[in-house]
Structure formats: C-alpha cells, structure tokens
Design brief:
- With 535 residues, the chain is α/β, with parallel strands linked by helices.
- The protein has a single domain (54-529), classed as Amidase signature (AS) domain (Amidase signature (AS) enzymes, Alpha-Beta Complex), CATH 3.90.1300.10.
- It contains 17 helices and 15 strands.
- It has helices at 3-45, 63-71, 77-95, 103-119, 168-175, 218-225, 242-247, 273-276, 289-305, 338-353, 370-379, 386-390, 398-406, 414-422, 428-449, 478-486, 515-529; strands at 98-101, 137-141, 179-184, 196-197, 201-202, 204-205, 208-212, 231-236, 251-254, 278-283, 320-323, 359-361, 453-457, 490-497, 503-510.
- Helix 5 (168-175) crosses helix 9 (289-305).
C-alpha cells in the first residue's frame, strides 16, 4: 500500500464529487430558468399554429393498406398521390418541411402505375411481395440523392448542387413501388437535433409550429406526422430518425449496425462512422416498418435479420422485457418528464399483465455517461472534421465565423459553428478511456438482452422543446445517440400526447440483428395505445 498515492486518489475523488455537485446545482438551476424564459417569450409573442385535420381518409391509411387498395383498383395511385400533394401544399406554410418537389413528375409516375394495372391487373410484378408499396407516395430527406433534386444539406456552399443519381435506399424504395414526392429539410450538414439552416430555414412541429420537429431528419418527421405521406426516408447517426419520429408522434427505426446502406447520401460516413450511421424509415403506421426495413436492407441483410417474407413471425411469448425510466443520475441531460416515465411503465405493465411477458426494471449505470461515450466514439471514428465539411473541404475558421454570426454576417447556424469549435478540444487519452467504457457497456447490454430481450427506454427526456431551446439542452440527444455507438437496433414508438398536446413515446432496443423484436413491439404497443395521433 502507498499511503501518499491513496491520499492523492482520495483528494481526486473528493474533487470529482465536488465538481459534480456544483455542476448539478448550476444545471439544475439554469435549465428551469431558461425553460421559463422560452415559455414566456413564445407564449406572449408567438402564436401557436397547428396543421388542420386530414382532408381525406386516404391520408390516414398505412402505406401497405394504400398499396393493397391501389392493387385492387379501389382507388387510383393518382388520387392517393394528389391527396398527399394537396396536403403538403396546405401545411407547408405552417411547418416548412419541403425544400424541393417533383409533384408533376410524381403525378405522371402515378398515372403510369394506374395504366399498367388497368392493362394487366394480374401481372405478378404488381404483387404485394414484388412491390409492397405500389403507387404509394413517399418523401425523402434532402441528404439523399434523388435524380434532379437538391442536396445542399443546409450548407450555403452546396446550394447549386443537383443529384445526378438516386441513393441506394431511394432506388430500393422506387423498385418497391414508392413514388417520391419531395425532399425535406435538415439541420446544417445533418449534425444537430433541430432542422434549421441558412438555406431553407427552420422546420416547425405539426402539433405546435413554435416547437421543433427534431433533426436531422426533421422535415421527414414533420411531413409524416402532419399526414402528408405514410412513409419517409431518413438517416440516423445520433438519433436523427428516432428524435423526429418521437417529436412528431410517429414511428422510426435505426437498424443494427451495417444493415442498411448509406451510399448516395451526403455527408456519408467513413471508417468506423459507418458503424454508427444508418439510413432508415419514418412511418405513420407500425405495419409499414418491417417491409420498409426489409426493402432498405436488401435480400442479404434481410436474411441476416430474419425479416424475409419467408421467415416466421417472431414468437411474442418468448420475449423478455426490461425497462428503464431514465439514464441514471446524469447531470448533463434534462430530467425525464413524468408523463414519459408513465408511458414507459404503462407499456411494461401492458406487456406483463395482458401478454404475460416477464418484465423487469433494470439500471445500467454506464448509460449516465451517454453524452461522453457518444462524443468520444465519434472523435475516434475517423470521420472528417466538421469544420472541414463546413468549409467545403477547407477547414473553416470557426472563431472568425462566430464573430461574423454575432454581426449577422454568417451563412452558418450557431449549432454548426459551436460544433466546429467544440471538436478542437478534448484529450485523446480520455476519449480512449471513455471508448473502453462504451465497449464495456455494450458487453453488459448484450449479456442482459441475450437472444430474446427488449429494453424499453426513453427516446428523449422531454416532448418537443421550443425553437432554438436545444441550445440550452445540448446533450439530451444522448438518449438516442448512445445506441448508434453501441450498434444496437432501436425503434421509436409513439404513446399518445402529453398535457401540452405534444407527442410523447419511448424507444425499444434489442440485441444485434434482433430488429424484428423491436418492430414487433411497435405493432403490439400501437394496437394497445393507438400509435400516431392524427393532428
């Protein structure tokens, strides 16, 4: 034993506890005060706007149901596509989700589908197995290539760029019968959890336009949540599918690492970043999740995930349910709101009492470090520096850009500038220690979940905050981001509205390649609690 070393370790431990206590008091005071300020400003000076009720019953149907109706000639594809286009034009002034459209081309695509069905209705090429989304409208995040469309990702330097080919997932959606209508808004370079940029403006929430739609797939979440289209394509590196799905009251899925390709989107992940980032669906009905994941993953990965049409439906009776109401005692994230805690308990109780599944409350202590684990893994991933991406390949001077922003002369948003500054700091040794802790957490979760476990966990600690309020809630994204660096599949599931009339929900997490269990759970909870609440 070394008394001096023990004394030094004791002093360091005491210092860490004192710093933690001071930060807890500061953040515990600042967060409520800033929240009150935002509440006062928006209530007094900004009018709440909601999107109107759905004008057509077609807008409230799932994509699979619409395709079946089109296939049976109960409705034309043109009528369905026109209803979606009319809806987008109606709600766009409220939510500002669409940044580029191909409405006339989409109507022509729909007429071709109708003509083919009228001339040869029994052709097996139009079957549900071959084209599960035949003639159904869909929307696409602007990060993805769509022939002729923009791909600025909110970056001023890219405003003149047009896509010359479709991204892989866009190709697969088209081959399954989807008709793309438009491209939707994102955060600058897809790296913030509010969809706001200097090129296309800010996207509002369909339930309250004063509040965020999330990011970076916020335009997709708002469009699907507003009833403009039943399915959309997003991407997720820190919750960019699941947070918009949560804030807008719909479903979103991040697949197991590497199972869905990113090719054809910008910025694309490189090196280990491909483990964290995946494309995926945002949908209004849970029954569309499985066929969307299947078509995006492709035949080979669908076989690995056991989600091919020939694969048996998972046996719900073999599932084991675990749940957590928060990440622990993290001082960096907001406390989980009581109504969100309640919906997690309600889901767990339903699965226990009504379906007879074993349910256990657990506490994984390392999850309280989620913001640091995500950040460290990202820094070590080999991804191109954000400031270099902002400068179009040349490192942007973010200190100078911050001064320009203060003088209202910058083409960049404050979150982007802040991220460019933040990435310059930190210790590689500390990052490697945190990455090791992340690996330990993954091993703990894999042991807990096994072959048949699902974890119910908050998708976010609060319902949608006001515009720009995320600047005071920097690390709340970690509730979703942690599962990107762990590589685990996670599905955001809506569970109704809170007392403010805003959507809330949870996420279901399973072990690697067990996506089918979280997708099944989405259907089970939708059947019990209603899923998407139409605005």
């Amino acid at each position: 034993a070394n008394p001096s070393a023990a004394s030094r370790d004791s002093r360091v431990g005491l210092s860490d506890r004192l710093i933690s206590m001071v930060m807890r008091v500061l953040l515990g005071t600042i967060r409520p005060l800033t929240g009150i300020c935002f509440e006062i400003v928006y209530r007094l000076f900004v009018k709440r706007r909601r999107v109107p009720p759905l004008e057509s019953p077609l807008l409230g149907m799932s994509a699979v149901a619409l395709a079946d109706a089109i296939r049976r000639r109960e409705v034309t594809s043109e009528a369905v596509v026109r209803a979606s286009i009319d809806r987008m034009r109606l709600v766009h002034p409220i939510i500002n989700a669409v940044v580029w459209e191909r409405y006339e081309a989409a109507l022509q695509d729909a007429r071709r589908v109708d003509a083919m069905l009228d001339s040869d209705p029994d052709n097996p090429e139009w079957s549900r197995e071959a084209k599960p989304f035949l003639g159904v409208p869909a929307t696409v995040k602007e990060a993805f290539g769509l022939v002729g469309g923009t791909q600025s990702v909110g970056l001023w330097l890219r405003t003149s760029i047009r896509s010359e080919r479709d991204a892989v997932c866009v190709e697969r959606m088209k081959s399954a019968g989807c008709i793309p209508l438009c491209l939707t808004n994102v955060s600058e370079l897809c790296m913030w959890w509010e969809s706001h940029n200097r090129v296309n403006g800010i996207t509002g929430n369909p339930y309250d336009s004063r509040r965020i739609a999330g990011g970076s797939s916020g335009g997709e979440g708002a469009n699907v949540g507003a009833g403009c289209a039943p399915v959309g394509l997003g991407s997720d590196i820190g919750g960019s599918i699941r947070m918009p799905a949560f804030f807008n009251g719909v479903f979103g899925h991040k697949a197991t690492a590497y199972m869905i390709p990113n090719a054809g989107q910008y910025p694309d992940a490189i090196a280990e970043g491909r483990y964290f980032m995946l494309s995926g669906p945002i949908v209004s009905h849970a029954e569309d999740l499985l066929p969307m994941v299947r078509l995006m993953a492709g035949p080979e990965n669908s076989a690995r995930l056991l989600i091919r049409p020939s694969d048996p439906r998972p046996d719900v009776k073999r599932l084991k349910i675990y749940y957590m109401e928060d990440s622990g005692d993290s001082i960096w994230c907001s406390p989980v709101e009581p109504r969100i805690r309640e919906c997690i308990r309600q889901a767990a109780e339903h699965l226990r009492a009504d379906l007879g599944l074993p349910v256990q409350k657990v506490q994984l202590r390392k999850l309280r470090l989620s913001p640091h684990l995500w950040s460290s893994k990202m820094k070590l991933s080999g991804e191109e520096r954000f400031a270099v991406q902002m400068g179009g390949g040349v490192k942007l001077n973010c200190y100078l850009e911050l001064i320009k922003w203060c003088l209202l002369r910058s083409h960049h948003t404050l979150p982007a500038i802040g991220l460019g500054l933040f990435e310059q700091f930190g210790s590689e040794n500390l990052d490697r220690r945190l990455a090791a802790i992340c690996d330990q957490l993954k091993a703990e979760m894999e042991e807990l979940l096994g072959d048949d476990g699902v974890l119910l966990y908050p998708a976010h600690p609060t319902s949608a905050p006001y515009h720009h309020q995320p600047l005071t809630l920097l690390f709340n994204f970690a509730y979703t981001g942690i599962f990107n660096v762990l590589g685990l599949p996670a599905t955001s599931i809506p569970m109704g509205l809170d007392h403010k009339g805003m959507p809330i929900g949870l996420q279901a997490v399973a072990n690697m390649h067990n996506d089918r269990y979280t997708l099944l759970l989405a259907e089970l909870l939708e059947n019990k609690f209603g899923g998407w609440v139409r605005p």
